Amino acid sequence: MATSAVDICNSALNIIGASNIISLDEDSKAGRICKQRYPNVRDSVFRSHPWNCLINRIQLTANTSSPTFEFQYQYDLPADPFCLRVIKLEFLETVYRIEGRKLLTNESQLKLIYVGRNENVSDYDMLLSESIAAAMASDLAYPLVGSNTLAQQMYDMYQRKLSEARFVDSTEGTPAQTENLQQAGQVQADYFLLSRF
Length: 197
Prior knowledge:
The chain is α+β, with helices and mostly antiparallel strands. The chain has six helices and six strands, in the order ααββββββαααα.
């Protein structure tokens, strides 16, 4: 099981047949590219699904200033852990909009469930780690191996691993919890079953 960003990057490098790295700070082509690309690739995978291991809950306090028009209140999105994606507000019918790092709404009190940036790899579900490694393999294939064909193969593999990880992740919890997350924007498990054929 991956315990560091280097482990995930090495999994990706192994998949495309490249040499391992010792550190993201090492002075090698693979090290430099992994250091540059890993945070963005990881965060894009994080944003792609409401991963159970990345879910955070918080009650927000409204800002003293309010939006110029349309909404009555604005809230700063959480910074610790950094909010990558809003999943759900306490009441599903709440109307809101994300603008920059602000959440605008007419609600004077706000409880929020969100995907947060967690850099501690040992907290990740195994299938999430595998999905990030596959995404990295897709991202690294052309710059390190110079093959568009391999890059496409790695992208296809990433999509398969991501589908499996999303399906498993979305089916953990009681049916009511699963249904609520689906209503909040999570893709339904049936979609992933069908996509595998």
